Amino acid sequence: MRLAAAELSATSACINMLSYTVKKEEDGLLLRTLLRERLGLSHRALVELKAREDGILLNGQRVTVRAVLRENDRIQLHTEDTREDVNEAILPLPLPVSVLYEDEDICLAEKPSGMPTHPSYRHREDTLANALAYYYRGRPFVFRAITRLDRETDGLTLLALHKTAAHALSLSLQRGEIRKEYWALVHGKTPAQGEIRKKIRREGASVIKRCTVPDEEEGDEALTRFYTFGEKGGISLVRVFPETGRTHQIRVHMASLGHPLLGDTMYGAPSGVFPRVALHAARLSFPHPTTGEPLSFLSPLAPDMQEAAEALGFSLEAFSAFCKE
Predict the structure, then answer these.
(1) Which H/E stretch holds residue 21?
(2) Where are the alpha helices (DSSP H) in the chain?
(3) Cα(154)–Cα(274) distance, integer angstroms
(4) Which of the chain's ends, N or C, has fewer CB atoms near its CB within 10 Å?
(5) Please, which pLDDT band fits residue 231 given cuts at 50, 70 and 90?
(6) Per annotation, catalytic residue among 150, 154, 215, 304
(7) Is residue 306 located within the same domain as residue 223?
């Protein structure tokens, strides 16, 4: 169940206590029921909170989750990470990254193209995780990316700064409450608008590459919508809205229509036209994980995509107006 605005609030950025006031219709509920069904906490999150002396407080007192609630009772949850939570393998490194917005619960980072989101065997010291571990140095920092971008894709990435926010945002993601908008340059003249509903799965034995498959075959359901701003020189500038979050979804779906993204040689684009996949995570809209307030953030096109669009003859001022429709 989605939280209404201002139902849950952070009381301190330093202490990281989240506060909730019991409503009239919740009078008589067990604390456990409210935490699981109303606030959406997982079993693991409850176990961790119960293990802390100040993990779960009812009217300032430590209680068991079997406590019976009364209207206007005040519940406080401790969400601060400890050194034991930190992944020491993620080295804090001064890498280029911009933080568009942050509070005690979330961070909106603008990931540059060429930077992986997560560390891997071949990328241990050049990731967004390394950059933000450095940005938040001096405090226990756990990298919790709610939205993830491919290495070559640039733009907005949403992170939770504590466990409770991470769980709330994960639930929002599952419910389709986190809306994503991408901007892309693609080959060919695309229709004015379109809907792509095609299953996606791994291609053969590849760990990375994906493909679309017929409805009768096994695969993950995927839905993408797009709106075309215009076409210049055989290249279209489009707004893309992935309704599901499959790996390489936009790249695979657009390629399946015969419109691979510029630079996306993995999915059929010619080489030498653009040095990377021309995909920008432009907008994120979602309910704040603790207040429920609807938020929306916009990131401008990266310089390389701006230059490519303008070189083709697109008016970025007109495109900006188009994106407000």
Answers:
(1) strand 17-21
(2) 31-33, 43-51, 128-135, 163-174, 249-256, 303-312, 316-322
(3) 14
(4) C
(5) very high
(6) 150
(7) yes
**Paired tokens of 257:** 């229509």
**How far apart, in whole angstroms, are the C-alpha atoms of residue 294 and residue 188?**
36
Q: Which domain holds residue 251?
A: 179-284+297-322
Residue range 28-40, pLDDT digits in tens: 999 999 888 777 7
Residues 107 and 211 in one domain: no
> In a 3-state reduction of DSSP, which class is residue 235?
strand
What is the DSSP code (8-state) at residue 296?
E
CATH code at position 57:
3.10.290.10
**Is residue 8 scored above 70 in pLDDT?**
no
| Co-location of 109 and 165 in the same domain | yes
Q: At what angle do helices 43-51 and 163-174 cross, to 10 degrees?
A: 170
Give yes or no: residues 214 and 257 share one domain. Answer: yes
How is residue 9 written in tokens?
């609030």
Tally of structural domains, the chain: 3
Residue with tokens 């390489």: 248
Among residues 121, 144, 174, the one where a domain terminates is: 174
Q: Where does residue 229 fall: left (phi above 0), alpha (psi -120 to 50 degrees), or beta otherwise? A: alpha
Is residue 183 within 8 A of residue 238, CB to CB? The reply is: yes
- Tell me, yes or no, whether 290 lies in a domain: no
Q: What is the CATH number of the domain that holds 249?
A: 3.30.2350.10
Is the pLDDT at 48 greater than 90? The verdict is: no
How far is C-alpha 187 from the geometric centre of its chain's CA atoms? 27
pTM of the model as a whole: 0.82
